[in-house]
Amino acid sequence: MALLWRVIDLIKDLWRALFFICSIQFWRMTLLWTFSVAYSHFQLLKDSLFSQKIVSYPRSSPSTVPNRPVCVITGATSGLGLSTACKLSKEGYVIVIVGRSEQLLSETITKIKGWHEDARLKAFQADLSSIESIIKFKNSLRQWLLDSDLHCSIQILINNAGILATSPRATAEGFDQMIGTNYISAFVLTKLLLPLLESSPVSAKIVNVASFTHRADFTTIALLYNLLKLFSSVTGLQVDEGTVSGKRFLSSKRYPYAQIYEYSKICLLLFSFELHRQLCQMGKSHQIFVKGTCFLANVYADMYTMSWLRIACQTRKSHDRKMFKWEQLYSYENSLESLVHLWLGLTKCCINSTNKSEFSVADPGVVQTNIMRDFPVCLSWLAFFVLKRLRLLQSPESGKEAIIDAALAPPGTSGAYFFGGKGRTINSSALSRNAKLAHELWETTCNMLSVTPFDNEKERF
Ligand SMILES: NC(=O)c1ccc[n+]([C@@H]2O[C@H](COP(=O)([O-])OP(=O)(O)OC[C@H]3O[C@@H](n4cnc5c(N)ncnc54)[C@H](OP(=O)(O)O)[C@@H]3O)[C@@H](O)[C@H]2O)c1
User: Fold this and answer.
1) pTM of this prediction?
2) Which branch of life, at top level (predicted)?
3) 180 lines ligand 1 (CB under 6 A)
């Protein structure tokens, strides 16, 4: 009888797989995502072979915080989050695990304790797709910190929780669940935890777990697809409320899951760089350690895209010469505007900055986790098989390296995009670094959230 049920399940799975294979979204994922991750690896290779400015950062040991430093990781009950939690607990951090299932949380604690007996862990149940739940979590976390022997602050926040949903689902606030989890939750949680991060006696880090898929719409292949009008695109990139909340997708006949996942990740990047800019402007980032007074700005055409302008700046004195992470200053719209912003930004914000909150992005590459849980089992198995053959697939243990690099990078690395492990960084897509778009997205998100319980919680910003 059990065998019969298994056969029936297998047939159902194959039938579902057939539907997936016949959809454009599936082929978009297969082609564009493979191309995107290959492009990221190519960038890494190109930088290490031909460029003298490959940027890689060493890991620093946990800072000296009264008692032990605290790291909050969302979505730590599985995959990359679990691996990261385990590694950072070995580094001496008190790990705050955030997950939506009580049972998975206690299983996770048992697992990590099994690997590392001395791990100090605390689990909080929160559904990150619900704003009310995030607010409750923030309150419980703060209370727990006050009641504990720890310093009432956070040293690392890792926004890792994410989903790849294949059917439309709405959150309590009416947002699309995939955008709600992958982008809006990171926005809300980061803003709510900023006071705790800024109370840290040492430099605090915020790490957003992004994805190579953010490149998908902007690669050459995507352009070709769009030219051929094989499918409609969410790009342009629209940052109106209907799109950012995902409401417009909830009512669409065919849920464009691959596009929405890409969209949620590019929003996460735009948000990361915008917050980084804002922290810089408020003088709250270590990003730039400037001693010299004069800067040379070189504007030169980007060899690879031929359409984006790149700005590189160097201090004049030779002992101050540094190549900075200038992602936030890249602008394809108006290089002069960027230069003005550069000057203003430098004079306004970064010299002699004393505080601490830094923002990095980690892209783990393609990792064999539960991320494809909504897909037919045979399809995810096939995808992992092919990716392994292409040598693109990693285990969560090696995939987490980029996240650990970002979390343990030394002060002064804010705004970096970690990819490929060994502390290495590459550039995210030019669009993800578009300051104007990031600002518009920020405004739209704030407007959208003003009708939710989040509005009453705005303690700062
Ligand atoms: N795997 C990859 O190839 C890959 C590549 C690039 C980026 N990423 C990103 O890496 C991050 C981690 O993904 P993964 O690959 O490790 O996938 P995973 O194994 O499915 O883990 C996702 C984690 O997020 C949690 N989560 C999902 N929705 C949540 C919610 N509403 N509230 C609280 N927790 C929630 C899950 O909890 P439950 O166990 O309760 O569902 C799980 O612990 C994601 O942001 C993903 O987009 C993954």
Assistant:
1) 0.83
2) Eukaryota
3) no
